[in-house]
Amino acid sequence: MTFAALAITVPVAGCKRIPDADENRPETARAYPPASRPVSDLAGNQWSTETARDKRGEAEEIMKAAGLAPGMTVADIGAGEGYYTVRLADKVGEEGRVLAQDIDEEVIKRLADRVSRDELDNVSIKLGAPDDPRLPEDSFDRIFLVHMYHEVREPYAFLSRLRPSIRRDQDGGTYDGGEVIVVDVDRPFVQHGIPPKQLFCEFEAVGYQLIGYMERPELGGYFARFRPVGKSPLPGKIKPCELQQ
Predict the structure, then answer these.
(1) Which single residue of 27, 68, 206, 233 could bond 63 by disulfide (Cβ 3.0 to 4.6 Å)?
(2) CA angle (195, 161, 64) in 5-degree steps
C-alpha cells in the first residue's frame, strides 16, 4: 500500500500548472478570439488641447468627411473629456442625438458635468465596457472611434457587439445608412497607434467592409469608414488577424 501511494503521489508532485490563455481576459469576451497584436495602454483622455485641434480644423474636417448632417443620431465612443461630443452635438442640431460613451467612470462624471454646464440637451452619457460598447440596437447613423481603437483590448468581441447598434435601412435588411468612423495613427502600438492594415483586417474579420480611407497627418492621423455587410460571424468562426506591422 505504501509503494502504491508513492506511485500516485510522485507524478502529482512533479506537475506544473499550465497557464490559462484566457486567465486575464474578461469572461464575457472568452468566446471570441483574443487580440493577435499588442494593445496600447490607456492614455490620457486629452489627446491634445482643444484649441490646437480646432486650429487644425480637425473635428470640422472629420465630421465633413463622415457625411455628418443635422438630425443624425451618432455615438462618440471613448469620448474622454468631450472634444468631439460637444462638436457633434452642435453639428447634428436639436433634431439630432449624441450618445457619449467611455469606460472610465471618473471621465464620465466630468463629461456629464460639461454636458450639463453647456446645456447640451441632445447629448446622453453612457458607461461602456472594454469588450462591449453597450449601445442600443439599430440606432446610429455614425459611430465615431477617434484615437481610441488601438486601446481596445478585445477587438473581436468589441466590434461584433458594435454591429447591431448601426442603423439599418428602412426594410431592415442592410446597413446602407450606418457607418463606423475610425481616426487613428499609423505608428507602433507602443506609441499609441495601429497600422491601417491591422485595422482593416480586424474589421473585415467580423464582417465589416472598408468604404473609405484617407491619410490626413495634419488632422492627427488617418481616417477610415466601415460598413457592416452580410451576417455577423459567430464568435467561434472569427479568424483572428496575423500581426501587421
Answers:
(1) 68
(2) 55
